Amino acid sequence: MKLLYLLLTLSSLLWGNQRTQAHMGTLISVTVADENLSDEVFAVFADLDNRLSTYKSDSEISRLNRCLELNVSERTLQILERSMEMYRLSDGAFDVTVGSFTHNTYRFGYDNEHLPSSKELKISEKSVGSNRIDIEGNFVKILPGTVIDLGGIGKGYAVDLAINRLMSRGVDKAVVSASGDIGCLGECTINIQDPFHPQGNIGTVISTLPRFAISTSGNYERYIKNKSHNHLIDPKTGQSQQRYASITLIDTQDNTRLDALATAVSIMQESKAVAMLKKLKIAYILIRNDGRVIKSPMPDGVRLNSSF
Q: Which 3 state secondary structure label does DSSP give 64?
């Protein structure tokens, strides 16, 4: 699987030691005063990758996709339950069974990526829908043809587990970054990448909160041939989203929710997406492909410095 560049870049942090490793198909960056704790964070990501990756044939999710039923671990169960919660919250815009499109049809992340025909999309569409997943205790069953892909929620979930691990060690100042999903303990400053000029930034978010979460998803993160064929797939149609160049969501906690909803917002009707975010009290910066910016006020304790 290809490594992804960080969608959100961290500003210089002089108080901690920053280390980076490759896990879950991207670069994981950890900044914390005690460098040894970075190893614990990387171990969390490595463990989840081994459980959740659809690119590893022996992962729990790959075995579930192959065998159609499986007794899963508590961590895998938890992310599947959160996925079902996000499916309901977004009225189906976030759907982990989108794997029928992303893995079987587009083949994102594989050497044989390709643009599917309308006929192929129609065939894959029949296997999409989180109502095809049944959970009873730790026993999970899926209907034949269903392919679960946790790429739209897994990194946020991993960030939450990593932050919780650091908090259990008494840490109150740290930053954990997994591509576009970043969790902070204590004051932090995050630069938001310009989706039209990847080497530049369009703004800076400064948080003085004890816990801070931010997630960005963009059409420039992964695509086939051009950005109009990006990885943000509408689970109802199999088509790539065409509205946004970049979506940034900001909250005081819960990177899992932000990761999933950033994916959902990308394909939702804009008015419906904004209404949902306002109801959930999630701050947002939506940058449309035409350069127009739709943004909300920031939460107390968070400041946005930008040119828009």
A: helix
pLDDT digits (tens, 9 = 90+) for 116-134: 788 887 888 899 999 999 9
For the chain, give the number of residues: 308
Looking up tokens 């975010």, which residue turns up? Answer: 277
User: What contacts 24+ positions apart, CB below 8 Å, involve 292-297?
Assistant: 294/270
Structural domains present in the chain = 8-48+153-306 (3.10.520.10), 54-142 (1.10.3980.10)
3-state secondary structure of 163: helix
Q: Tell me how many degrees the CA angle 100-101-104 measures, rounded to the nearest 5.
A: 65
Please, which residues have CB within 8 angstroms of residue 213's CB and are 6 or more apart in sequence? Answer: 159, 182, 183, 184, 250, 251, 252, 253, 254, 255, 258
pLDDT tens track for 163-216 = 999 999 999 999 999 988 999 999 999 998 888 887 788 899 999 999 999 999
Q: How far apart are the first and last CA of the chain?
A: 35
Amino acid at 189: T
What stretch of H or E contains 166?
helix 154-168
Max CA pair span of the chain: 55
Task: Read off φ and ψ for residue 119, nearest 5 degrees.
Answer: -65, -45
Task: Name the residue with tokens 């109801």.
Answer: 279
Backbone angles phi, psi at 292, to 5 degrees: -65, 140
Pick the closest to residue 251 from 281, 271, 222, 228 (CA basis). 281
